[in-house]
Structures are given as structure tokens and as C-alpha cells.
Amino acid sequence: MTLPRQVQLMIEPTKSHDNFLGRPSLVRVEKIDVSSDIQILHNALKFITSKRKIVDVLCSRTNRQRIEIIKAYKACYDRDLVEEFQRKFSGDFRDLLIAMLTPTYEFYCRELFDALNGTTVNEDTVIQILVSLSSREIYNVIQKYVKLYGNPLEKDLKTETSGNFKKLLVALANGTRDESNVLDLYSARVDAMELKRAGTEKWGTDASVFNRILCLRNFDQVRLISQEYEFVTGHPLDKDIKKEFSGDILDGILAIIRISENRAEYFARCLYKSMIGIGTDDRGLIRLIITRCELDMEDIKGEFQRKYGKTLKSMIKKDTSGYYRKALLKLIAE
Description:
mainly alpha; Annexin V, domain 1
């Protein structure tokens, strides 16, 4: 028996919403011996620099546990572990260690600040962070950002970006997305028709309509809107979006659509992009690995292999080397 279309839409499983329990590659060990950890790290740094022991300890601990280790190390040896690593190591391995030892919200703020204040704006970084964070997480980032840099994040977004892309980023940074995960088929149909009128049926796309709908609706609802759009127009929403937009605003809107469809596949795509072509975007690779390993990296690994016909492990092994490679692989449980 074929179910009514409305019922089919309502019961399809989603992989996008904020309450989705992903499969992490780095699982918190409830009871750790911090005193043993800091002694191992101290010996590895003082007597003979042992990158292997450092990787074994830090890549087996969550971000919160690493912060506990930093505090304990300072209390026991009166030394800053981050500064120790900065003096002892260099290159990508050092950058990975420092990133791992940075509190999560401070890390996101640093990534956003550097992305917005470089010689050119790194739009990919800004999009990946703002699109993927929950409203609560965005609120915490906003509070931390102004403490660290003196300027509100919104001010920097408005200063360093422009046009419809700026409006999209500001809307995302407001952190006002509905997170109820409630689905409303009638509202999805209304929104789909409004997107149609603001896009293909209008001379000159009304980007404000796309920003309002796609930045306010919960991700499950965005997915439902996409399905309704295809039902009423006969073609996918992302296909029309590619016709109506270009450049950074296109990348931002597509990121929202892709996360609504399959969050793990979206991050698999980001990881692939960081390693494909000439040269590796090591900063992007580090950010993606350390922020997703505690959330849904096992799901991302599966989507990566399905989409690209190769494992994430194989690409990391090909594009990185040394203990930098070993650390990345340990974080993704390979």
C-alpha cells in the first residue's frame, strides 16, 4: 500500500536537525587520570620530545578534558602547556595541537576573526561555522567574540562583507533559527510558493525572502520546503537557486540546503574540498576534524566513502605526513 504523500513526508528520517544523535569518532572517557596525563606530557616535553606520547594522550581526550589537562599542568609545573607546544613544535602539527587545546567557543571565535580580518575574507570558513551552529552555540560565540576582540561579531560581518551575502551572514549570526524540529506541511507549501515568486517568477531575485525563510526555519522544515518546492515546480530548489544566485551568497544558501538534507554529507563535502587539488587547506582540515570528531565523524566518514568512492583515512594519509597525519587519523578513530 502506498502511503499518502503528506504522511510520507512527515515520517521520512532526517539526518540534519540539531537533536540528531550523530556517531562521534572521539568518545569521552568518563574517568581519566589527569595527573598521569600531565606527567606523560611533561616527560615527553622535558626529557625527550616524544610526539607519539603527546598524540596518544591528547587525541584520546575531549576538548573539555584537554582544558582540564592545561589547568592541571599549570598548577603542577607552573608552565603554560600551550606555550610549551608553541616553543617545541612548528608547522601543521603545532597548529593542530594549539587548536585542540583551545576551548571550543574561543576556537570558533578565532577562526571567524581570522577569516574576516585577513587580506581577503575566507568566506568558506564563515559559512561553515555560522550555518552549522545552533542558536545557543551562536549566542555563546557572540558573547565570547566581543570579549576577545572588542567588536561585536555582527559589526565585523557588516564591515568585511557586502551585499546580499552580508545580509545572509548577519541573519545567521542573529541566531534566531527555530529549533523545535516541528514540521508544518502547510507552512512549507506557503514558503515554497513564496520562494518561487521571489526567484524564478520575479525579474530580479528578491534575496531577502530567501534569507528570511532559510535562516529562520528549522532544518527539518527547510528540508520539507525543498520537497514542496520540487513538488510544485517540478524541479529541485537547489537547481533554481544556482540559476538565481552566484558567488558567496550562492555558497551560503546552498550550505543551508545541504545541511538540511544531510549534515554528515555536507561536512564530507567540506573535508573533500579541503584536500582536493594542489595543496591542502590544512587550517580548514584541522577545524573540520577537531570540531566534528566529538559529534558525528563516524557518520561523515560513511558519507565520504559513499560520495567519493574512497575513505577519509586514505585521503588524509595521502595529503598529510608525520605525526600531524597520525594525530588526525587518531582523532577520526583510524
